[in-house]
Amino acid sequence: MFGIPKKTADTTPVAESRSDSDLVGKGRPTPSRRDAEAARKTSIRSPRGSKGGKKAAKEQDRAERSRARAGMLAGDEKYLPARDQGPVRGFVRDFVDGRYTIAEYFIFMAVVVLLLGFVNNPSVQQLVSLGFFLMATLIIVDTTILVIQLKSRAKKVFPDSADRRGITLYALMRTLQYRRLRMPKPRVERGRKKGK
Questions:
Q1: Long-range pairs for 28-37 at CB < 8 Å and ≥24 separation?
Q2: Burial readout 75-106 (b: 16 or more C-beta within 10 A, e: otherwise)
Q3: Would you kindly state where each structural domain of the chain is located, as residue ranges?
Q4: Alpha-carbon distances of 48 from 42, 56, 60, 62, rounded to whole Å
Q5: Backbone φ, ψ for residue 19 (5° rounding)
Q6: Interhelix angle for 167-175 vs 122-157, to 10°?
Q7: Cβ count near 174 (within 10 Å)
Q8: pLDDT tens-place string over residues 142-166
Q9: If residue 63 lies in a helix (H) or strand (E), which one and from where to where?
Q10: What are the Cα distances from residue 98, in Å, to 38, 65, 121, 176?
Q11: Cα dist. 123→8, 34, 132, 195 in Å?
């Protein structure tokens, strides 16, 4: 019991008893860390080949970016971001862009109110506060009318309610942008629908 060795002479390692055809795995030895890191650094250092290849790839990327920007500015569906794609979003953009909205001038009015707020005159500050609240009221009324009319027309053009999901928020975000800075660019003139 005690003093008897656990290993006996007749036991052989399992790996020695197997033939090469019985081995399962990747079929090659694991590379050393030094070799693996050297291979990784080489692939990172020259992903596109020679210096001329890198320059050509940069030019191609630049041309692709400018083509995508031009397509987005033109309203080409293929180049639009996912939030702007689809006929429903195009309908909302045309509806908002064809109207005069007070909300698009909100940023300019807010800057004026902020600058006038520094004037140390109580009567001027009262007028500024009154003007700001009046402007906010007009924006709320104008935007509410726009949303009601938009939902009514969108319901006629797109009867499926799943298509109209999210159009209110999309229209509100569009109205808050100054017309010349809107992306994609407006396709319709103010007061006119597309195609007229």
A1: none
A2: beeebbeeebeeebbbbbbbbbbbbebbbbbb
A3: 49-79, 86-181
A4: 11, 10, 12, 16
A5: -90, 170
A6: 140
A7: 23
A8: 999 999 999 999 989 888 777 788 8
A9: helix 51-74
A10: 60, 29, 41, 14
A11: 105, 77, 14, 50
Sorted by sequence, the CB contacts under 8 Å of residue 71 that are 6+ apart come out as 78, 79
Q: How many helices (H) and strands (E) does the chain have?
A: 7, 0
Q: Which residue matches tokens 């799943």? A: 162
Whether 86 and 165 have beta carbons less than 8 Å apart is answered as: no
Helix (H) or strand (E) holding 140: helix 122-157
For 134, other C-beta atoms within 10 Å of its C-beta total 10
pLDDT single digits (tens) 4-42: 555 554 555 554 545 555 555 577 788 888 888 888 776
Coil, helix or strand for 25?
A: coil
Residue 57 in tokens: 């790839």
The answer to whether the beta carbons of residues 147 and 172 sit under 8 Å apart is: yes
Distance (Å, rounded) from C-alpha 163 to C-alpha 182? 23
Q: Which residue has the tokens 């694991």?
A: 30
